Structure formats: structure tokens, C-alpha cells
Amino acid sequence: MSAIEGVLFDIDDTLVDTRGAFALALAAVSAVWLPDLAPERAPEVLAHWRADANGRYRRYTRGEVGYEAQRMARANDLHRDFGGPELDESDYAEWNGLFERTFTASWAAHADAPDVVDRLLADGLKVGALSNAATAYQVRKLTAAGLIDRVPMLVGVDTLGFGKPDPRVFTEACARLGTEPSRTVYVGDELDVDARAATAAGLHGVWLDRAGAGSAVHAGELLAAGERDRVIRSLAELPGLLATA
Ligand SMILES: [Mg+2]
Q1: Residue 11: which residues within 8 A CB-CB, separation 6 or more?
Q2: How much distance in Å is there from the Cα of 62 to the middle of ligand 1?
Q3: Ligand 1 geometric centre to CA of 132 (Å)
Q4: If exposure means fewest CB atoms within 10 Å of the residue's CB, which of 18, 165, 202, 227 is most exposed?
Q5: Around 121, how many Cα atoms within 13 Å sit in the side-chain half-sphere?
Q6: What is 201-216 written as a DSSP string?
Q7: CATH for 6-17+108-244?
Q8: Distance between CA atoms of residues 235 and 179, nearest Å
Q9: Beta strands in 81-226 (DSSP E)
Q10: Residue 43 Cα, ligand 1 centroid: separation in angstroms?
Q11: Which residues of the chain have pLDDT under 50?
């Protein structure tokens, strides 16, 4: 990847510890709305939320449903599976107020993010962010994480009205970054909508596999041959990956 001119980052669970912030937000709403739930089931609640099993957030990223509608549906999915009440509009407003206050107060950069961004910029690379959430929301998140001055938010789900894995959001982000897709790396924590989608759009997709999922399962089943050398376990591995090949 010696001809690389720029690096685009996913935000949630790539630059920002969104998983940790969700855990705190879900703990706050669970204490109020799922009071009988055993505390040791908190990891199940987090896994349920993040799995988006009914594809509600995916539908939002395709522009098929509004943000609040998908989130209210996800809150009710959660309550159905963990014994909470069905939320009407007014219950949901209360639920989401608590969730959102806790979530936004918990935003922080992953420990490996700031140094890597500094290193890439010092190496003369252009750096920006492409995310499947709304642009203004992600600007707030990058600001809270202390990254906005170094990582401009280039493309959100509202920029074109749809998000990853559509190839057009990747080419739009490259145009805004000022790099050719073939000279741009995209780093994200989701194998399909980040790494594979970026590669399909003509960029160099890199999978940030923080949990080590790629090594936990049979790598041959999960990863195609060309993908295996583009997996990193930490952002700290990124400069080394860019220096090789
Ligand atoms: Mg992500």
C-alpha cells in the first residue's frame, strides 16, 4: 500500500468506544424499564442492541425508515425479549431521553485512536471520517472524543440519503478527502459494511477486528485469501500495515 494518500475511518467502535457508551446507556434504561432483569444479563442486553437482529438500523441506513422510528422499534424489540413494557410514543420519549443523555455523556476515543491519527498526519496522509450515522451527530461525537480538529467528518448517512455498503458513499468520501479511491484506505470494525464494502468500491478495505473474531473462527471460512493480510487487531497496527506491501 505504498501509494496510499489518505485514510478514511469509520467512527463507531473504530475511533470511538461506542460499545462502551452503549453499555452505560443500556444499563441506565434497564435500571428504570427492566428493573427485574438480573444484573448479570447486562452483556446479553448489549449484544441484543448491537446485533440489530431485526435489521432496523440497516433499514435506516438504506433510507427506508426515519431515525426515531427505528430506535423506538429497537427499544420495543429489547423490551419484548427481556420482559419490559411496550413503549408508546410518550414512554419512548422518556426512555430515549435517558438513553441519549447517558450515551452522549459516555463518548470517548478508543485509547489507540489519537496517536495513530497523529502519526498518519505526520506522515503526510490525509485523514477523514465516513460513518453510517447522521453527520451533525457524528461531529458532536468526534468533538467529545477530542478528534474533530484532526479527523473531519466527511460523509454521513444524510449526505447522500443512504450509507455503507453502497459504493457511492465511499467514492463521495474520497472526493471530499481529495484522494483517488485506489490510493485510499478505509478502516472499520465491521467486515461486511466496512472492509468488504470499501474494497468493492475500489478502496483498500481494512478490517479492525478488535475482538479477534477472525482468529476465533476458521479464518478460511470467514475471510477470502486477499483479506487476511488486511486485518488488524488494534489501530496501532495500521501504520505498519501501510508501510508494507
Ligand atoms: Mg463501526
Answers
A1: 18, 129, 131, 133, 138, 141, 142, 153
A2: 16
A3: 8
A4: 202
A5: 13
A6: TTSEEEEE-TT-HHHH
A7: 3.40.50.1000
A8: 21
A9: 126-130, 153-155, 184-188, 204-208
A10: 19
A11: none
